[in-house]
Amino acid sequence: MPADPALRPAAEAAAAPALEMRGIGKRFPGVIALEDVDLVLAPGKVHALMGENGAGKSTLIKIMAGVYGKDAGSIRIGGRETELRTPRDALAQGLKVVFQEIALIGEFTVAENIFLEQYPVGRAGSIDWKRIRGEAAALFARIGFDVDPAAKTGDLPISQQQMVEIARALAHEARIVVMDEPTSSLTPSEVALLFAVIRRLTALGIAVVYVSHKLDEVFEIADEVTVLRDGRHISTKPIGAHDHDSLIHDMIGRRIENLFPRSRGHHKGEVVLSVSNLSTDAKLKDVAFEARAGEVLGFFGLMGAGRTELAKAIVGFDPIRTGTIAIGGRPLKPHDTRTGVSLGIGLLSEDRKGEGLMLELPVQQNMSLAALENFSRAGFVEEGRERSAVQSFVDRFRVKTPSLAQPIKNLSGGNQQKVLIARWLMRGLKVIVVDEPTRGIDVGAKSEIFALLDRLAGEGLAVVMMTSEMPELLGLSDRILVMAGGRITAGFERDAATQEKILNAAIG
What we know:
The protein is built from 18 helices and 22 strands. By secondary structure, the protein is an alpha/beta fold. Helix content is 35%, strand content 24%. A 6-stranded mixed β-sheet has the order 6-7-8-3-9-10, with helices on both faces. The chain has a 6-stranded mixed β-sheet with strand order 16-19-20-13-21-22, sandwiched between helices. A 4-stranded antiparallel β-sheet has the order 2-1-4-5, with no helix packed on it. The longest helix has 16 residues, at 188-203. GO terms for molecular function: ATP binding; ATP hydrolysis activity. InterPro entries: AAA+_ATPase, ABC_carbohydrate_import_ATPase, ABC_transporter-like_ATP-bd, ABC_transporter-like_CS, P-loop_NTPase.
């Protein structure tokens, strides 16, 4: 018997993809950002979107969000062709993007943020605050998350702010939720909670786009994965059709034979950094260790363990209450970065954009900043000498830039990181402290950063690496120290370290 025509549109909608983007193109002046890109999302599935920095992921996400308009192609949501000209259009179509930079008002309560665009109104025409708090609590119950709707949003950790963004998506009856690098600032336990929430979303029939550089996470949470490279669609496959090597190959167009290269032996030189009984008012408690020339000393800890505070203290950035720091046997006075630099220690901050780079200035000035006195005469910088030195490091580190005059904000994360490493080496160092050296960097650039750090240790530097990434900790370190609650709780030689031992020590 033929199907009832009145039921046919509903049946077709149920079978239709949640989102279908075909032949998407986007151009900026002098740049083809996207060309003939396809992305098809199934309801109730997690679809990973991957690619190197500059592959086009961010541009595609902004087209989904209505931030950018497409120049070519078509978009269908629930089987119906649509145009997403503004973020309001995207929300109205049931598409919500949770960007890496959380877009919440810190002074507002959780409930106020959730219903920011559509406050429920009572009979008298005033905002129904009781209803707002009740509906916010109901939304959190749907995703299995417990937070006070009356809490001030700015007081919440990043992981809970993400849950508020997800609850906002449900308040808008979103059928598609896009998550852009959602775990970049989360602890392992918070990642587990986020994954539980994602699975609840898919159980409700919501399609999730998961954007990440972290391969292990993608293999754990995704059902399908689409890879972009140089603004073009490379592949869309079930996650089970990939292994790590094949996914990396699709992303960068080549295989990486060894993500963690080891060009060094196990020879260690003299002690170049000595820290004794170091304590601060904010976090650190009686920290003591030594770092030797020619080794990579890895520090691991969960969020709040004190890794970043230690990194800033040992270069003289943060004040200390008690203890001593010596570089090459010479003492470093607390809160004295100028002396730290002159003694030969430099810091690669985890926040390279906020604390490292001058985004509007060119590559040349960003790289030479710490060593300008080397190129100066009578108080004036000799630009020719400066340019020659910068070019030598650009060539040595294979920094991809059209010219030394290119604003550094236009470089990929990996190339920005190379410029910052070169900045310190141009000055001359005994110790380089790197805090989360591969945060926000794609897998191809990661392998280059790993090789570079290994090479620097091979050239006699002491590399002190703070990281929350277990693979790079185990893959690159010669020794590992674990922190919890501002203290060092365990130490391991490379061959004796295991993930289980490290996590047990990190939990404290």
